[in-house]
Design a protein that fits this description.
The protein is an alpha+beta fold. The protein has one domain (8-420). The protein has helices spanning 13-22, 27-31, 80-89, 144-152, 162-166, 179-182, 253-262, 265-284, 323-335, 352-360, 383-392, 401-410, 415-420, and strands spanning 40-43, 53-54, 59-62, 125-132, 136-143, 203-209, 215-220, 242-244, 247-250, 293-302, 310-318, 370-373. The strands form two sheets. Strands 1, 2, 6, 7, 8, 9, 10, 11 and 12 form a nine-stranded mixed β-sheet that branches. A three-stranded mixed β-sheet has the order 3-5-4. A hairpin with a 7-residue loop joins strand 10 and strand 11. Helix 3 (80-89) crosses helix 4 (144-152) and helix 7 runs antiparallel to helix 8. The model is unreliable at 6-10 and 224-237 (pLDDT under 50).
Length: 423
C-alpha cells in the first residue's frame, strides 16, 4: 500500500516527523498512519479470529519480585521522582473522587510519596504488562499515576533525584534521557516489554458494528480545562481529537485480581472482555450484561505514540440494532444521565445550515457526535477505503490514531471469520 497523504487539516505533520525520527524501524507503518508495532491476531479460546494466537492457552504469572509490600510495581529508583513530578503536574487529567469511597484507599502505600492533593482524585490500580512471550503473560499491579508519569508524558526529559545528581562515581542511565529514549533500541524499534522502564499498562478499545456491519465512530474532543499550556494536539504522548473508537479505557487491577490470585489465563481473558463491557457501559450507557451485543477480541499491539503501551482491540457486534438506533440510544442515555463518563465524547458544533440539512434529510441521520461508516461490502472494510476516509474525514475531522489503527487491522480480516471462532 502506498504512503497515505497526510490530512493537513488535523495538523499531524509534526507528529509524523517526530515518530519517523524516533522510530525509523517502523517507517512504513508510520507513513501509513498506523502508529503501532506489528499486530498479533489473538483469540480467547474459541472467541476471536481463527488464525489468532489463543491467549487463554498461555500461562499467567504475577511478578512480585519487583513490588513493594503493598504489591505495587517498583519503577527504577531514578525514575520514581520523575513519575511523582509528572503526576503532580498532570493532576488535571484526573477526576476528583465523587465520594471518599471512590478515592484509592492505598494512596499512602504507592511506591512513592505523591502530593497530598492527589489523594482526593480517582486513581485506579492498573495492570502492567511486564512481558509477553509465546508461553507466558507476566503482569504486575501499577497505578494510573505510573502511566501518566511514563507512557503519557514519555517525551519529557527525566529529572533525576538529588542523590543521583550528586553521585559522581556512578552515572545514572536516565541522565539526559526521556522515557521514550530509554525504551527504544538504537534502530528505533521498541524494546521488549521485559526490558522496559515504563509502566506499559494494558489498554482496551473496541470498534462497534451494527446489525449490517456498519461501523459507528464517535467524536472525541479535548477537555481544554484539563490541559497544560504545552499540551497541544501534536504532543506525542496523548490522543488527538477526532473520530474515535466506540469505547476505550484502561484495564484495572480489580478486573483481574481473582485471575491473578488463581494464575488463570482463561479467567484473565474473560476479565479483559468484561473490562471492555464496563467501559462500554461507562461511555455509552448500554448495560454490562446487555445481550444486544457480543464482544470479540481480534488483535494485540503496542503503541508508538505512547511508546510501548500495550493494547487489546475488540469488535463489538450489535445483533439486531441499526447504527442509527444505536446512536439514538446513546443520545438518550446521555439525556437521562445514564452515561457515567459523559465528558469523553461530545457532539461537533454544527452551523445552522448543516443542522437544517441533516434534520431535513430523508435518510435518517444521527446527531453530530456520530459518524456511520459503511464498509465496501458487508464483511470487510478495505485499506484503500480506509485511507480515503482518513483523508476525506467527516465534518472536517478525521480519525484518532487509535480508531485508525483498530480499523487498519480489521481491514485485513473477514468479519464473519472473527465471529465464527476457530474451526
Amino acid at each position: 500500500m502506498d504512503e497515505i497523504p497526510i490530512p493537513q487539516k488535523i495538523e499531524l505533520a509534526e507528529t509524523l516527523k517526530s515518530l519517523r525520527q524516533f522510530h525509523p524501524f517502523y517507517r512504513k507503518s508510520i507513513d501509513k498512519l498506523f502508529w503501532y508495532t506489528d499486530p498479533i491476531l489473538v483469540r480467547f479460546g474459541e472467541t476471536g479470529p481463527c488464525s489468532g494466537i489463543d491467549a487463554a492457552a498461555l500461562r499467567l504469572r504475577v511478578d512480585r519480585s519487583n513490588c513493594n509490600e503493598a504489591g505495587y510495581w517498583l519503577p527504577h529508583p531514578d525514575l520514581r521522582p520523575h513519575i511523582v513530578k509528572q503526576a503532580n503536574a498532570e493532576i488535571g487529567r484526573l477526576n476528583v473522587a465523587a465520594s471518599p469511597e471512590d478515592a484509592n484507599p492505598n494512596f499512602s502505600r504507592f511506591h512513592s510519596r505523591f502530593d497530598a492533593s492527589l489523594a482526593q482524585c480517582e486513581i485506579n490500580d492498573t495492570v502492567r504488562l511486564c512481558s509477553l512471550d509465546g508461553e507466558t503473560i507476566t503482569i504486575a499491579k501499577a497505578t494510573y499515576l505510573d502511566q501518566i508519569g511514563t507512557n503519557i508524558t514519555a517525551d519529557r526529559e527525566i529529572e533525576l533525584p538529588i542523590s543521583a545528581r550528586l553521585n559522581e562515581d556512578t552515572r545514572s542511565p536516565f541522565e539526559g534521557k526521556t522515557c521514550r529514549q530509554m525504551d527504544t533500541e538504537a534502530d528505533g524499534r521498541l524494546k521488549p516489554l521485559s526490558r522496559c522502564v515504563q509502566a506499559n499498562t494494558i489498554g482496551v478499545a473496541t470498534v462497534a458494528l451494527d446489525a449490517n456491519n456498519k461501523i459507528i465512530a464517535r467524536y472525541r474532543n479535548f477537555n481544554r480545562q484539563k490541559l497544560r499550556p504545552d499540551d497541544v494536539q501534536v504532543r506525542l504522548g496523548a490522543m488527538n481529537k477526532g473520530w474515535h473508537c466506540f469505547s476505550s479505557g484502561v484495564l484495572e487491577w480489580s478486573d483481574i485480581e481473582t485471575a491473578a490470585e488463581q494464575q488463570s489465563t482463561e479467567l484473565f481473558c474473560a476479565n479483559l472482555t468484561e473490562a471492555m463491557r464496563r467501559e462500554i457501559w461507562y461511555e455509552t450507557g448500554f448495560p454490562r450484561d446487555s445481550r444486544e451485543y457480543s464482544i470479540v477480541p481480534y488483535a494485540f499491539v503496542r503503541e508508538l505514540k505512547r511508546p510501548g503501551k500495550p493494547q487489546f482491540f475488540f469488535v463489538t457486534k450489535f445483533h439486531n440494532l441499526t447504527a442509527e438506533e444505536i446512536c439514538d440510544r446513546i443520545d438518550r442515555h446521555y439525556d437521562e444521565g445514564i452515561v457515567r463518563e459523559a465528558g469523553e465524547y461530545s457532539r461537533l458544533e454544527e452551523d445552522l445550515g448543516r443542522k437544517f440539512l441533516r434534520m431535513m434529510s430523508r435518510k435518517r441521520q444521527p446527531s453530530s457526535g456520530f459518524w456511520i461508516i459503511e464498509p465496501d461490502d458487508p464483511g470487510r472494510l478495505s485499506q484503500k477505503r480506509l485511507a480515503d476516509l482518513s483523508v476525506e474525514g467527516h465534518n472536517n475531522e478525521t480519525f484518532t490514531y487509535e480508531l485508525y489503527g483498530a480499523l487498519f487491522i480489521l481491514s485485513g480480516l473477514d468479519i464473519s471469520e472473527i465471529f465464527g471462532g476457530p474451526s
